[in-house]
Specification:
The complex is a heterodimer of chains A (328) and B (456). Chain A is built from 13 helices and 2 strands. Chain A is mainly α and 328 residues long. In chain B, a hairpin with a 2-residue loop joins strand 9 and strand 10. Chain B folds into 2 domains: 259 residues, P-loop containing nucleotide triphosphate hydrolases (Rossmann fold), CATH 3.40.50.300; 88 residues, Gyrase A, domain 2 (2-Layer Sandwich). The chains are: A mainly alpha (328), B alpha/beta (456). The complex binds adenosine-5'-triphosphate, iron/sulfur cluster (SF4) and magnesium ion (MG).
Amino acid sequence: MTDKPDTALPGHATLPARPGRFAPALRRAFRPVAEARGFARAMLWTGAVLTGIFVLMALFAPWLSPYGFDQYQAAGVQFAQLAPPSAQHPLGTNVQSTDVLAQIIWGARTELMVVALALVFSLTIGVPLGLIAGYFGGPFDRLMVLVMDAMFAIPSLLLALVIAFLLGSSITSGIVVAACAITIVYVPQYFRVLRNHVTSVREEPYVEAARAIGAGPFTILGKYIFFNVIQTVPVLATLNAADAILTLTGLGFLGYGVQPSQGAEWGYDVSRAVGDAASGIWWTTLFPGLAIVLLVTGLTLLGEGLNEAINPVLRQRATTKLKMEDLE
Amino acid sequence: MPSKPDAMTDTLDAPGGTPAPDATGARPFISVKNLKTYFEIRGSVFDRLMGRDAGTVKAVDDVSFDLAKGEVLGLVGESGSGKSTLGRSLLGLVRATGGSAVFEGQEIVGLDERSLRRLRSRMQMVFQDPHAALNPAMTIAQSVGHPLKIHKRAKGAEDQRRQVVAALERVGLSPAETYMDKYPGDLSGGQKQRAVIARAVVLDPVLLVADEPVSMLDMSVRSKILQLMIDLKQKLGLTYLYITHDMATAKFFCDRIAILYLGRIVEIGEASALYAAPKHPYTQALLEAIPDPDPNHTLPRNLPRGEIPDAAKPPHGCAFHPRCPRAFAPCGWEIRDLTGLLEARWAGMAEADHQAERALIGTPKIPDGPEAASRLPAASGDGAALLALLEKIRAEDPAEPFWTGVKAMHAEAGHVTIDWHTPVTPRLIAGKGTAAACHLHDPALAAHLPKAADGA
Ligand SMILES: Nc1ncnc2c1ncn2[C@@H]1O[C@H](COP(=O)(O)OP(=O)(O)OP(=O)(O)O)[C@@H](O)[C@H]1O
Ligand code: SF4
Ligand SMILES: [Mg+2]
């Protein structure tokens, strides 16, 4: 950095906006990830590879998939219903005559799109609310804690169902509806973790030092608190993503998720195939089920690996008193 | 120094109980009068539902002093005496509950946050723990440069960098380039404290509150940091409020010293006078506790005779009286002192005797404030037997200062009533040398002085 001294110096902009200043701070915050060793490293890599496979599937679905997600014929010839795996259909076909492999690949796109959208929504709501409630405290904080705890107490699938049901009539995109339902479920978690972390970091002498040099509350939040609490978010986000896949497939299984006309969805596929296994048709449930399990496992391993890599450092630094139970 | 003559406040005219720092009559640079900072203790949810007050800690209680420009005032006291709170109240970092603190003609108490922020360029703070006082996510250059940015003192990144380099070099972090892009975690304790000082002086302040700036540093760097602070004071014309619990460094560093005990100044005066002829028994005890030649010994935080009392329920009268070897009638004796006395007595007794005495004595009600007479219940129901025991205890150690506060004891049905001398809260009394808040130096109370203590 010595050859580019200016990047290390704040200019006159009021809040961190230039990537030149943002990047080193973020790189520093996540340095422990690159330095992870042993078990944490193994978890991180296994999780990253598993998740990566699904991300690639999602990104390149149009090129990877042999057919469209709702395609039931090719060149005017109808696909066989419930056909076993063959050269034409490597993973067979299901009761709607669609290709199971195509369902898996396009499904990855649906699942990850919903989860990514939900992640963006819940971060943009949960993180600022947590920062503000944690830093300013007072009646707003008490109200938010009450509301969020109440939401947290409702079983997540039930909450998601209600939201999906309520929004389903007014929003046409099934992906957005599902993302909103999942957002409502996970906002309280980001809020709780951020808010608790901020209330402890707020008492750090460097925050008082920032007040002593005349920094206003939003400067303190942006420059002194944000970068010291943000390390917990990736861990939480990946673990939540794993959980969100389960919620989303649960919604799909119950018929309230992404509708079959709008995209392939593994939970829905499983729900349509539950009866098949009894008659010896194993491919229609096994492959979507396996996809769910593998993606959830991948994300969980990634999240736990990040947790292992980042949190020992957090515990060492006297500056952070993160409670582990907040991450659960 | 740009002063603000237009912001004259009427509080300045009030004489108050403060001894003037110098006899020239010049308007003091900083004038603190009857400053109070109280903290409400948050009780449990249950307490709050019941409307019960969990109590108030009077961290700073009725403190007055003046500070002349270029002066170094030491604030000395044990842990919990309110030194940090006083310094933070002066900078407006905690809201004072009452009183006044005038800085360059500007009243700090009750000032809104925005005006306070503007004032922060004139008054700065150095913290006890340099590691915790620096943002771990900012480089040294960012930390030291941030005040410039907040107060718009730099014309562009180049100018800011130049000023940061100058500040770092000024505090002995040179060449500055080696430190600028480092994070606090990469520096040693002494270097971090230098960076904290650089951040404090980068805006060219006039007042520096230094809260135990060397107490967390290695012995080897302490004197270097203190020397740096002395150099900076001369070069930059700084005024210091130097907070410490260490009488030895205070002597070497301060022009004047204020001794704090449970939120009050108990003695204040020129350092030379205070060390030569300390008036307050607490100051005397602090001075006796200075370990002489061995620099590896720090001041024992607990003085002889008892612990620091609970700040939420300070002793009545003179707060120091339960620990004071020379306390006498008006010092504020109360029923809690009897409990303390009995605990101390029983600690040195055989178990059987101890149990026999304990069986006679019931649990007294602790009042919220001073009371003229207290009831000590007799556990056996026999007031006369209890009185006999108390008389026996008194006869065994008549020199115990507690008994000077007891006017009379009467046996009644089921309890003993103890009449107390009226407690008097000591005020700072100026005299030759220092001003002390101790009844021993109050001519009006001389009549109460016991003969034995008189000659001291
Ligand atoms: N924010 C706060 N809320 C409640 N009580 C507080 C707060 N800050 C300080 N106190 C109380 O005020 C009293 C004085 O504290 P303060 O930190 O000023 O003492 P100190 O002399 O600086 O002690 P030390 O030498 O340990 O730093 C203590 O009893 C402390 O518990
Ligand atoms: S007033 Fe003086 S003598 Fe009395 S207790 Fe206080 S310090 Fe001791
Ligand atoms: Mg302190």
